[in-house]
Amino acid sequence: MLRSLVPGALSLALLLALGWLLLHPHPRLPERPAPDLDGDGVADALDACAREAGLLPDGCPPRDSDGDGALDRDDECPERPGPPGNRGCPDRDGDGDGVVDRGDRCPAQAGHPEAEGCAPADSDEDGFWDAEDACPEQAEVWNGRDDVDGCPDPGAARLEVAAGRIAPAGPAWFSRSGRLTRAGRVGLQRAAAVLHAARARRVRVQVAMPGSGSGTAPQRRAEREAAAAIAVLAHERPGLALEREDLSGEGAGFALAFE
C-alpha cells in the first residue's frame, strides 16, 4: 500500500513545485545602463556631444554662436549678433550714419547721433551748427582769431570751409615734393578744430592723383600729402575715421571732405 502511494505523492509534489515556479519566476538581473559619459541622459551611442552635457534629442547643449542671447535654433542671423527683440538680427542702418533706422528721425539721409540721425542745420556752412553758432547767418573766418564762436573776425582766412569741405587758404601747406610745411601743420590743426566744432566722424583726405604713370613724382607727392595730413589729424582728433580719396581732373587738389 505504501509503495503505491509514493509515486503519486512525488507526482503531486512535482506539480506543486512547477506551479510555484510558474507563479514566481526567477528574478532577472538588472541590465547594465548604456554608457553616458556626460550624464545628460542621452546614451553615448546616440549622443552627438558625448563629452558635453546637453538636451534631447541629440545630447548637445543649446548653441548661441554670436552670443546675442538668441539660441541658434531661434536666431534668424546666427552669425551676427542682434537685440533680443529683433529675432537675433542686427538693427538696420540704411543711411550708414551710426543711428539704427528704428531710432533715426531721418533714416534715408545720413546725419549725426546727437541730432537723432538727422543732419544738423549749418546755415552759413562754417562748421558750427546753428544751435551753437553765435552768428548763424555769417560764416566764421578761420584765421586763428576767436575761432570758437562762429562769427567773422578781422584778418585773412587760413581755411576755406563750406558745405562739408575744408581747403587750404594762404601759405602753401606742402612743399613741391609733398612734404608738410609749418603753415600746413598749423592749417591742419585749425582744420581739426573745424572738425571738432562740426562733430565730424568721417574725413576723406582728397589729393590730386594722376590718372596714369604709377610711381611718378606727382603720384608720390599726392601720397605724401595724404599720409602727412592723416597723421596730423589722427593725433589731433583720435577716433576720427580717416581715409584717402584720390581725385583727378580739372580742379582736383588737396582738401578735406567731412561728415
From TrEMBL:
Keyword list, A-Z: Signal
Single GO molecular function: calcium ion binding
Cross-referenced InterPro entries: Thrombospondin_3-like_rpt, TSP_type-3_rpt
What Pfam families would the database entry show?
TSP_3
So which domain of life are we looking at? Bacteria
GO BP: cell adhesion
Region of interest called Disordered, as start-end residue ranges on this chain: 53-130
Q: Where is the composition biased (Basic and acidic residues)?
A: 61-72, 89-105
Supply the name of the protein: Thrombospondin type 3 repeat protein
Classification of source organism: Bacteria, Pseudomonadati, Myxococcota, Polyangia, Haliangiales
